[in-house]
Amino acid sequence: MRILVTGGAGYIGSVLVPTLLEHGHAVTVLDNFARGTTELAACCRYEGFEPVRGDARDTRILDALVPKADVIIPLAALVGAPLCKEDPIAAETLNRDAVISLVQRVSRSQMMVYPTTNSGYGIGQPGVHCTEESPLNPISLYGVTKMAAETAVLGDAGGVSLRLATVFGMSPRMRLDLLVNDFTWRAVTDRAVLIFEGHFKRNYIHVRDVVKGFEHAISQYHEMQGQAYNLGLSSANLSKLELCAKIAEQVPGFTYVEAAIGEDPDKRNYIVSNDKVERTGWRPDWTLERGIAELIRGYKTIRNSRYANV
């Protein structure tokens, strides 16, 4: 298939795009490539790879690229509550408006698979799993903009929305700020972490299982279209303290302490059911334990000391 991926040089895209090319698809990536790094360099060996430097909000570029695609995957976004708070105008124009622009250009003969976030559930009820029928209650601009874009994708485009759990794992465009990645980094480098509100729970998913989710949604598109699906590890609805205990099993000497005072500005706290997507035949390949082991190996290759003397 001919697949258009916006933001394809990011954390998820730099794993997704090589996989799609490897499986025989032609992939066009629209990205500003602002980092000037080589996350997609290995993709250039594929004749079906077409990088396009540009902004996902530029409607002139969308007019040229969208009609050529069989599948559209909008990854371009400001991801995470802190980044959206820092630049609210970009968050609204990129996370919401750029996706709506794509929806306006997509025909019903084309497929759209959209990644949103299960942080739209905000604060759940203790012990009650959030399902796709649970009320949405986003508590950040990030969640609000992503849910607005999802509404357009499901309604006007008849697409598929994947409500991603908190993603973890190694990627060519690495992110250390994601919770599992962050706590594992601190365990490996500092051997300690101070936790605020350690009882807060979330669901998690490996980045390669996210890619598997995209491929599954494309292959099962006509059965899944027009609906949202939670995509996460059913075995990993864990609190921060439980997550640290998992990391400590693989990092000897790792100490984690819950702060007696103070609070986490990120108030998300929920557990999620992934039964709906599992009923369509999707299953994850990566356990949390396997992902932590991967991160430990990966962190032996990374030094985050750009502004340090050593």
From TrEMBL:
Domain NAD-dependent epimerase/dehydratase residue range list: 3-232
Superkingdom of the source species: Bacteria
Database matches in SUPFAM superfamilies: NAD(P)-binding Rossmann-fold domains
PANTHER family (alphabetical): BIFUNCTIONAL POLYMYXIN RESISTANCE PROTEIN ARNA (PTHR43245), NAD(P)-BINDING DOMAIN-CONTAINING PROTEIN (PTHR43245:SF23)
Protein's name according to its UniProt entry: SDR family NAD-dependent epimerase/dehydratase
Organism: Roseicella aquatilis
